Amino acid sequence: MAVLWNRHRFSGGLLILDATNTVVLRGDAARSFDRFGDAGEIARFASVASVMRSTELGGRALSFEPSGGAVRQVMDMREAADRLFRSAASSGELRVADLSAVLRRCGACLDGADEAVGGQGRPFGNPARPMRLEAALAVSALGLLAGDVWRKIRICANCNWLFVDRSRNGSRLWCDMAVCGNRRKARRHYARKVAERELEDG
Ligand SMILES: [Zn+2]
């Protein structure tokens, strides 16, 4: 079934984290699945991310040519980033072995690109033409590492996604209050009702 690439799927707050969140329920072997399992979905992710992440991308659109090599690069980049940023979110430190893997992946994704990034108002380079998704994932990951923003990465208490917590007191629990926050509340409410009923019946 085609994925509905709605706003919720872009709760990570940055392109590289949105990419890590394309694996649903990570760590839950029975229920986990990969939205990038179909390469066509990677291309659709790239085109919707162009809009959802327009500010980060400096208005540059993303493109994706689903060749075997490109699919592998996206997957390798995504998995290396997830390992590094997930452990950073729980420990507050960057594991050097994971950092090294991410940097290698970034190098591979950027290899052969004859262009410049980081210009004034052009963080991802010239917005006049699209950028390959692989290269954009690398620039997003490097941007996250360049400053202190990686310290604000959190793991959603409901769905395990990674997101940047930009709240003032840094206490956000959910990737998306409207989805995960409410689901959690509904589950607590249901559990309380069941407990009450058991008390009444007992
Ligand atoms: Zn969540």
Automatic annotation (TrEMBL):
Gene3D superfamilies: Jann2411-like domain (1.10.3300.10). Transmembrane segments: none annotated. Residues 153-193 form the Zinc finger CGNR domain. Pfam families: ABATE (PF07336), zf-CGNR (PF11706). This is CGNR zinc finger domain-containing protein.
